[in-house]
């Protein structure tokens, strides 16, 4: 019984517990014009407006007669409407697009965190 307790204690050492308590900033970086080109085609999408909210940020883009609204949520989820019709509703960070990636940073000093 004491062996099991020692194993359990080794799994949650003070070092491990403090690492889980560190604050981490997750940043989603998206190349919106290129991502939109992948979704709907065309080139030269231009961002002409942006609005920031507590849990998301919305961008309005246009290319000729086409207008798109892209809403990026803080958790990597995205919604895209093209001319008022929904064309994308899902995770932008699932790895399907090279136009989006996640970066992680320590909140206390801004140092980047590399995940294995």
In short:
This protein is an alpha+beta fold. It has three helices and eight strands, in the order H-H-E-H-E-E-E-E-E-E-E. 23% of the residues lie in helices and 45% in strands.
Chart the SSEs and their pairings:
Elements: H1 2-11, H2 14-21, E1 24-30, H3 32-40, E2 46-52, E3 56-63, E4 66-73, E5 77-82, E6 85-91, E7 100-106, E8 112-113
Antiparallel strand pairs: 1-7, 2-3, 3-4, 4-5, 5-6, 7-8
How is this structure best described in words?
The chain has 116 residues and is α+β, with helices and mostly antiparallel strands. The protein has a domain at 28-96. 23% of the residues lie in helices and 45% in strands. The chain contains three helices and eight strands. The chain has helices at 2-11, 14-21, 32-40, and strands spanning 24-30, 46-52, 56-63, 66-73, 77-82, 85-91, 100-106, 112-113. A five-stranded antiparallel beta sheet has the order 2-3-4-5-6, with helices on one face. Strands 1-7-8 form a three-stranded antiparallel beta sheet, with no helix packed on it. The longest helix has 10 residues, at 2-11. The two termini are 34 Å apart. Mean pLDDT is 81; it is low at 1-9.
């Amino acid at each position: 019984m004491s062996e099991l307790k020692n194993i359990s204690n080794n799994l949650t050492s003070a070092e491990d517990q403090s690492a889980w308590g560190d604050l981490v900033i997750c940043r989603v970086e998206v190349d919106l014009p290129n991502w939109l080109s992948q979704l709907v085609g065309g080139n030269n999408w231009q961002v002409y407006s942006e609005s920031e909210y507590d849990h998301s940020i919305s961008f309005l883009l246009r290319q000729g007669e086409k207008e798109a609204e892209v809403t990026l949520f803080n958790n990597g989820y995205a919604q895209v409407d093209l001319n008022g019709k929904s064309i994308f509703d899902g995770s932008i960070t699932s790895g399907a697009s090279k136009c989006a990636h996640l970066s992680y940073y320590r909140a206390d000093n801004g140092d980047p965190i590399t995940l294995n």
